[in-house]
Amino acid sequence: MTPDITALLLADGRLPIGGHAQSAGLEPALAAGLTVKDVPAYMRTRVRTVGLVEAAATVMARRAALDPPVRLDVVQNAVLARTPSEPLRAASGLLGRGLCRLATRWWPDHEAVAALTALGSGPQRPVALGVVAAVTGMSDEQVARVCLYDDAQTVASAALKLLPVDPADAAWWVLDLGPAIEETTLRATRPTTPAELPAATAPWIEQWSLDHERRTRRLFIA
Hints:
This protein has 222 residues and is an all-alpha fold. The protein has 12 helices and no strands.
């Protein structure tokens, strides 16, 4: 498997890790009053805040996976410290678990995969994504870009289920984010230690996730 093919696979929403159950916070945002016209700005905000944090953590996990003895727990703790919402931690853990399952099926003897499994049942998505990137030879830039693209595509895909929007418009939202994704990709590769990970926050996204957790009628986990 080549790094380029791996990047395409990880960016594919059909990858069996549970991404179809996520809206990247769009469903609770709409419940709080966000409109269809606001969605592109919402996506851009995510790229530059929570997206930056996750992309940088993914890069950090990739590097840790290539530096024996593998210490993924340090990166995991840094991610958790920057995710105050328990529902968002849980949602990330579900995606991480899905990636971990694939990694243990495909590369059961790899040291980094063993370290990922040792984190327990809920490795955060950026940590698991970084491990897969390391095992398959992806670069920092490749995996940061995949992380950011996946977040944007998750919002766009959820919008098709939640809003009266033309699919061509939803696809354009992602394409139009290209320059912001590239800029953030570069920023995500700059930290050199887990302590230097960005701590950009989006307080309303955090609050909306807490509100969403209490709802009994919803289509998406988060």
